[in-house]
Every structure is written in C-alpha cells, then in structure tokens.
Design brief:
This protein is mostly beta strands and 312 residues long. The protein is built from 3 helices and 14 strands. Helix content is 12%, strand content 38%. A hairpin with a 3-residue loop joins strand 3 (93-105) and strand 4 (109-116). It is globular and about 95 Å long. It starts with a helix and ends with a strand. Residues 25-29, 62-67 and 303-312 have low confidence and may be disordered.
Length: 312
C-alpha cells in the first residue's frame, strides 16, 4: 500500500515539475534577450511625453464636424522638434514648405506631429464637389530602418497618413496605413508600399489615433497621430516590435507630398534629409538615427520642450 502512495506522489510531483517548467521556466529560457542598442553621438533621442490634451480628446472637440482647430506646438510641447523645409515639384512649380515635425513617446506609443506651412492642396485634386472623397490626399510618411543595418530589407516598418483637404478649408477625413519595404517582382526591385496592398499582410493598422486640419488662408496642413510601439499579434509586416525595458536605435526618413491616385504615393514628393523616392536603392546608411529608450520610464511626463531643437 505504501508503494502505491509513493508512486502517486511521485507522479503528482513529476506532473507539477513538468508544468512549472513548461509554463514558467521554458518561456524564460526561450525568450530573446532585451535589445539594448548603444545610442550613437548625433542620434535624436526621442523624449518621454504624451500629447496634452490627448488625440482622443482633440477628436471629441465639437468643432470636429466643421473646421477643427488645435495648436500642435502646444499639444506636443514636450516633444523633440525637427525643423526642415520640403521642396515638392508639382506641375504648377516647386512648392517650398517650411515644416516642423514633432516626435515623442510613452510606454506604448510613438507620437508624431507635423505642421507644413504653405503646402496647399493636392494639385491632382478634382474640382470641389458634393462628395469630399473626390479629392486626392496630401500624404505624410515616416519610414524606419528598424534594425539600423543601413540596408533596407523586408519588412521594415513605416506609417503613412493620407489627409483629404478641400477648398473649403477642411480636412474631410484622414486615413492611416502601415507601409513596408517589399520586393516587387513586376518591377524587379523593392519599394515602400502600403502593407494592405501586399497579400498576406492585411491586419490591424499600427496607428491608433489621428487628427488633421487645414488652414485655407495660409495653406497650412497640420496633423498628429500615435502609432503602437508593439503589435506582435497583428500585422506580419510590422517589424517595429519593442518590449518594455528595451532601447532601440533606428534609421528614419520623413516624406511629404501628394498622392496622384488613391493607392500610391505620386511623383510629387520630397524627403528629409533628402529625397529617396522612387526608392531606386535599398541603401539607408545615410538616414538619420532616432533612439527610443523604454528602459528608463520617468515618474512623470514632460510638458516642456526639450533643449534639442534642430533646424535642418
């Protein structure tokens, strides 16, 4: 009788040990070590901050159904501000667009704002009509060399915001997309394209909240959005998958321009620090670097502008 009790207890402890190893020890053993990149000199260290008020609160503004207004400089007061000038070639001549791009992050999101002075409406837009969807959007993209390898490879990661501004001084709607670096067999080369145009990559878009406005008197477009820093169970093409406690350094490129149809970024585009479209090379070694450090969360988030503000 005693040997039966010993056998049952042995089986019980064996099952308990196997369960503990399977559910607790094994995942820790298989888990990749935290990515901790050394931040190089000259990299843009993105500060911890949150928009104030939040983008969701801005979208509850009762003016949203008419002509929403918000001061992106005040809302993104704690962000890194990058001043730059885009020069966009259009059929009507070059558009010189002094711009400010705002970057900040918290535990879960990267916040991206932009103010583009004198950008104007898309030259490919239809004449004004009763259906605002007839207009063709102004487009902003931020692209990432996620592994900071200096060579783009599938899938990388990027975010695109299409903003449908019209002649009455409104942004009727804004639509977000994930963009990926992917090989195009018909062209014999790779390019950045919208992930929802790639078979097998459809899924939840990494942009969470967004807002945009257009001032017809100054032809100024303003936008603000947040994108998740990690969406491991959604879009296969989203290579930006940060974990708590990590520090990533990535190359990044900013593009501004006009879409010439509803699916593709057109020829009317410029980039910062220089134009890369139509992406004839996978060389990203010249891209500036940004760093997102999730290893040192502050006790509270900044509401003051950091000293690092750059005129480029």
């Amino acid at each position: 009788m005693l040997w039966k009790r010993i056998l049952l207890l042995s089986i019980f402890f064996f099952i308990l040990t196997v369960s503990l190893v399977y559910y607790y020890a094994l995942p820790k053993m298989l888990e990749k070590p935290l990515r901790m990149d050394a931040v190089p000199s000259g990299a843009y260290l993105i500060p911890w901050m949150r928009p104030n008020p939040s983008i969701a609160e801005l979208n509850q503004n009762p003016q949203m159904n008419s002509a929403p207004t918000f001061d992106v400089d005040a809302v993104m007061a704690g962000a890194l501000k990058l001043d730059m000038t885009f020069q966009i070639d259009t059929p009507g001549g070059k558009r010189v667009v002094p711009s400010t791009v705002y970057l900040g992050h918290d535990t879960d999101h990267l916040y991206v704002g932009g103010k583009f002075v004198g950008m104007g409406l898309n030259p490919a837009s239809d004449p004004p009509g009763p259906d605002p969807r007839r207009t063709v959007p102004n487009t902003f993209q931020i692209l990432f060399d996620v592994y900071d390898s200096g060579v783009l490879r599938f899938p990388e990661s990027g975010s695109r915001l299409d903003m449908y501004a019209d002649f009455d001084g409104r942004v009727h709607m804004w639509i977000s997309h994930d963009v990926v670096w992917v090989y195009l067999p018909e062209d014999g080369r790779s390019a950045w394209i919208m992930a929802d145009n790639v078979p097998g990559l459809k899924g939840e878009v990494s942009i969470r909240d967004m807002i945009a406005q257009y001032d017809n008197s100054t032809e100024t477009l303003t936008m603000l959005f947040s994108r998740f820093l990690s969406m491991p169970n959604s879009l296969q093409g989203n290579a930006l998958q940060m974990r708590s406690g990590e520090c990533w350094v990535m190359g990044f490129l900013i593009e501004l321009g006009f879409t010439t149809n509803t699916a593709h970024f057109g020829d009317y585009v410029d980039g910062w620090p220089k134009k890369a479209y139509p992406y004839l090379s996978d060389d990203s070694s010249w891209w500036p670097k940004l760093a997102i450090d999730l290893s040192n969360p502050p006790s509270q988030y900044s509401t003051k502008s950091p000293e690092q503000s750059n005129q480029l």
